[in-house]
Amino acid sequence: MNIPEYYAGKNVLITGATGFMGKVLLEKLLRSCPDVSAVYAMVRPKAGQSPQARIADMISCKLFDRLQDEQPDFAEKIIAVNSDLTQPELDLSKEDQSILVENVNIVFHCAATIRFNEPLKDAMQLNVLATQKMVALAHRIEHLEVFLHVSTAYANCDRELIEEVVYPPPVDYRKLIDTLQWMDEKLVSVMTPQLIGGRPNTYTYTKALAEYLVQQEAGGLNVAIVRPSIVGASWKEPFPGWIDNFNGPSGIFIAAGKGILRTMRASNDAVADLVPVDVVINTTLAAAWYSGTKRPKNILVYNCTTGGINPFRWGEVEHHVISTFKRNPLEQAFRRPNVNLTTNHLINQYWIAVSHKAPAFLYDLYLRLMGREPRMMKTITRLHKAMMVLEYFTSHSWVWNTDNIGMLIGQMTPEDKKVFNFDVRQLHWAEYMESYCMGTKKYVLNEELSGLPAARKHLNKLRNIRYTFNTVLVVLIWRVFIARSQMARNIWYFVVSLCFKFLSYFRASSTMRY
Length: 514
Hints:
This protein is of the alpha/beta class. Among the domains are: about 5-240 and about 275-310 and about 400-420, Rossmann fold (3-Layer(aba) Sandwich), CATH 3.40.50; about 455-514, no CATH class. About 55% of the residues lie in helices and about 10% in strands. The protein contains 19 helices and 13 strands. Strands 3-2-1-4-5-7-11 form a 7-stranded parallel β-sheet, sandwiched between helices. It has a two-stranded parallel ribbon with strand order 6-13. Strands 8-10 form a two-stranded parallel sheet. Helix 2 packs across helix 11 (about 275-295), helix 10 crosses helix 14 and helix 12 crosses helix 17. The longest helix is centred in the C-terminal third of the chain and has 31 residues, at about 450-480. The radius of gyration is 27 Å and the shape is elongated.
């Protein structure tokens, strides 16, 4: 049975359907498995919008254009379910509980907070307790075939080698849940660094607890766990470069393209474990198909990463981002794109002061003088917070075991391998990075390609300003320091004479060879 045949006639439940990965999962499932019966999307009301209105808004975005062309009536299969995962019994009405219990066949639990610096209580509520409630609901579902939990490859980032197994966390999640119920926020904040230990943030810590909870409370459920690394723009589907948010590396790429980001603490040689979102979704759909058809005895964990199969380093990321945005600049760039990566904290702090804070201060001063609202220092502050979150991941590399990923590919039919492709050995990084950067321009910033000539003209103007400034600076240094000191003049003339001698020697050597 191939993958579309498995999903035919099935009723699927998705949490986090309005999130980045959730909406890609929804689109791909409906488009590539057209005979799926229904998709229940658990959505909470937000900003005065009902779950139905949020789903209607979501499916009107460009991501669903291809699906709209191929299946104009696809929206009829999406059923919005009013739910809040942080509330008792998921805030489901009795009627909705009955519908889900009686009809659902497959559960994709994608919902989670992706804020790395979330307070521990909030991260526990969203990543651990919500998962516990979903597992409890899954136990009640009468015809459940698969419960697929989306985790993160960095749940166990305190280890250098990460295998496709569920690792026991250092703290019993049950005791932690009980303790946090009576502990006040200040005490929790003080205890958090000791609790998370070698992990960099509450996100990775609580995702590790959630994995262990799923394993411990699964009982007879048929469970699979998918662990993506740093999820980026789409590789191929539904079209290259689709991205709709500033999260993770996307915001950093945009800041670099705008010329706002000039320095970052990262190792050029560290592996950037970027993984396209469509690779993650194809892996997820295939993993659920395999568990549903083969019913393995143990929980299968899939490390959905690229570093061990097709490594790409942060120095290469920086090169491709900068070169792409120099060829295809963002509109109204602050400066020409140029980023320096360093692992040295002091050097990084120096360049932050010189290349980030000083220009931002001067620009805000100019805005104040022009009677406008200053904004650049606020932008720089937000950028630094984002960089601090990513520093840990841009400075370390991990060794991933991906045996289950290889096994899964081997079990698929040739046609499924094409339709649900997640073989990252085929990923050409230079092409992907260009489509990623262009995706941020088109889909996040909503910049039209027709604006490229003007953007290029603006970038040339910034280059001329930079050359003029550097020339004026050299002249000033000469007038203030060198021209007034006999020793400085002697050193200057000595350096210049050496340069002329070198050029004369080079020219003479070239003439002799000719």
